[in-house]
Write a structure and sequence with these properties.
alpha/beta; Rossmann fold; 5-stranded parallel sheet; 8 helices; globular; binds BIS(adenosine)-5'-pentaphosphate; Adenylat_kinase_CS
Length: 219
C-alpha cells in the first residue's frame, strides 16, 4: 500500500505511523525525521533545512522533493510506504503524483487525522522524542516514560524538539492551514481521503485508522 498521512503538527502522525507501518509491513517515511537525521549528522542538506525548521516554515520544495524521492526509491519501499509529513503543499502533491506515475504506481489512500487545535497545543507542549530512534515518542502526561528523560524502548536520551516552542508551533499551525490543508481537497477530488478523529487513546486511534484504511482499500 502507498499511503499519505496528513494532519496538523502534533496530531499524532509519527506516533500512529510507527504502529501502522508495522501492521501494514511497509516503511514509515517521515520527511521531518529525514531532516532531523541530516541536522544531527551536520550534512549540507541538514544545515539548509535547520534554518527553515527553526522558523516553523517549510523547507524549500527543491530540497524536499528530491530527498523524499530518493527515500521512496530505496529497495525497502518497492512494495509500498507510509508517507508522514510529505507532501505538505500542492507543488509537492503534484510532484508525488508524477514520481509515482513514472513508476506506474499510484496512491492507495490519504489518511487525514483530525484533532482540535487546543489538543494539538497540549500534545506538542509535552512531547519528548528519543535521540536514538525517532519512532519512540513520549508525552510527559499522556505517555510518560518509566524513567524521566530515558526512552523505555531503547534507553536513548529523551529531548524536546527545538521547533516545539510556543511561537514556532503557532507558525507551524499557520503554515499547516495555508499550505498543507489545500492538499486534502486535492486528494478528495481523486477520491482518496479518509478522515478520522485522532482523539482518544493511541491504540484506539490505531484501530480506527486500520479500519478506515481497510474500508478504503476494499472500495
Ligand atoms: P514534522 O517532523 O513532520 O512535524 P509536524 O508535521 O509538525 O508534526 P509533528 O512531528 O510535530 O507531530 P506528529 O503529528 O507527528 O505528532 P506526534 O506523533 O509526535 O516537520 C517538522 C518540520 O520539518 C516542519 O515544520 C518543516 O519545517 C520541515 N518539513 C517536514 N516535512 C516537510 C515537507 N514535506 N516540506 C517542507 N518542510 C518540511 O505526537 C505529538 C505528541 O502527542 C507526542 O508527545 C505523543 O506522545 C502525543 N500523542 C500522540 N497521539 C496521542 C493520543 N492519541 N493521545 C494523547 N497523546 C498523544
Amino acid at each position: 500500500m502507498r499511503i499519505v498521512l496528513v494532519g496538523p503538527p502534533g496530531a499524532g502522525k509519527g506516533t500512529q505511523a510507527a504502529y501502522l507501518a508495522k501492521n501494514l509491513a511497509i516503511p514509515h517515511i517521515s520527511t521531518g525525521d529525514l531532516f532531523r537525521a541530516n541536522i544531527s549528522q551536520g550534512t549540507p542538506l541538514g544545515q539548509k533545512a535547520q534554518e527553515y525548521m527553526r522558523a516553523g516554515q517549510l523547507v524549500p520544495d527543491e530540497v524536499t522533493i528530491g530527498m523524499a524521492k530518493d527515500r521512496m526509491q530505496q529497495e525497502d519501499a518497492a512494495g509500498g510506504f507510509l508517507l508522514d509529513g510529505f507532501p505538505r503543499n500542492l507543488a509537492q502533491a503534484e510532484a508525488l503524483d508524477a514520481i509515482l506515475k513514472a513508476d506506474g504506481q499510484r496512491l492507495d489512500g490519504v489518511l487525514d487525522l483530525e484533532v482540535p487545535e487546543d489538543e494539538v497545543v497540549k500534545r506538542i507542549a509535552g512531547r519528548r522524542m528519543c535521540r536514538k530512534d525517532s519512532g519512540h515518542i513520549f508525552h510527559v502526561i499522556y505517555n510518560p516514560p518509566k524513567t524521566e528523560g530515558v526512552c523505555d524502548a531503547c534507553g536513548g536520551e529523551l529531548y524536546q524538539r527545538e521547533d516545539d516552542s510556543e511561537d514556532t508551533v503557532r507558525k507551524r499551525l499557520e503554515v499547516y492551514h495555508s499550505e498543507t490543508e489545500p492538499i486534502i481537497d486535492y486528494y478528495k477530488a481523486q477520491g482518496l481521503v479518509v478522515t478520522i478523529s485522532a482523539l482518544g487513546k493511541v491504540g484506539e486511534v490505531t484501530e480506527r485508522a486500520m479500519a478506515a484504511l481497510e474500508r478504503e482499500s476494499a472500495s
